[in-house]
Amino acid sequence: MARGDLPALFDAFAEDRDGEGWTYLPHGPFDGAEDFAADMAPRIGGDDPIFFTIRAEGRPVGHAAYLRIDPGSAAVEVGFIHYAPALQRRPAATEAMALMMARAFETGYRRYEWKCDALNAPSRRAAERLGFTYEGTFRQATHYKGRNRDTAWFSILDREWPARRVRLAAWLDPANFDAEGRQRARL
């Protein structure tokens, strides 16, 4: 992620008028672009987490990060996933996650993790839709925004990735979408 992406990301996130997309993230919502930039600035350019800007149709519309990067165990987590309304429920959202998974496995990771607030039903559904396996819930795993958080754990292993990759590629194939952009076959 580049600092220069922050103003456009803030604008894209601001399309979520009620701030609902920030509910399960440890930061946000923000009152202005300056507050967002001040919060994100220390997160950019680090070794862990490593933030990425997600772009669709040439503009920043989301971010995600690799975190808990453990080369010794060859395990990495994807997190800090936040999509602007312009990216939600779009093929580009799935493509972004597929690309991040592919990069992790192609660079030698054997375990790819997804963790989310156990109350975050959309995130849990997304993990399962993308092919992650539910592993359990860690009770009171953390505390944020004034409440305890139970964390649901999901993973994909390197031996599972080839089948997941084929499934994602078939779904992302342009032939899977009609002229209005509706999927023909579900993922």
List unreliable stretches of 5+ residues. Answer: none
H/E series, N to C?
Answer: HHEEEHEHEEH
Largest sheet: 6 strands, mixed
The count of strands amounts to: 6
- What is the overall silhouette? globular
Count of DSSP-assigned helices: 5
Q: Kindly report how far apart the N and C termini lie.
A: 28 Å
Structural class by SSE content: alpha+beta
Mean pLDDT: 96
Q: Work out the oligomeric state of the chains in this entry.
A: single chain
Approximately how much helix is present in the residues? 25-40%
Q: Can you give a write-up of this model?
A:
The structure is a single chain. The chain is an alpha+beta fold and 187 residues long. The protein has helices at 6-13, 33-40, 91-106, 121-129, 161-172; strands at 50-56, 59-70, 75-83, 111-117, 133-144, 147-157. The chain is built from 5 helices and 6 strands. A 6-stranded mixed β-sheet has the order 1-2-3-4-6-5, sandwiched between helices. Helix 1 packs across helix 2 (33-40). The model has no long low-confidence stretch (mean pLDDT 96).
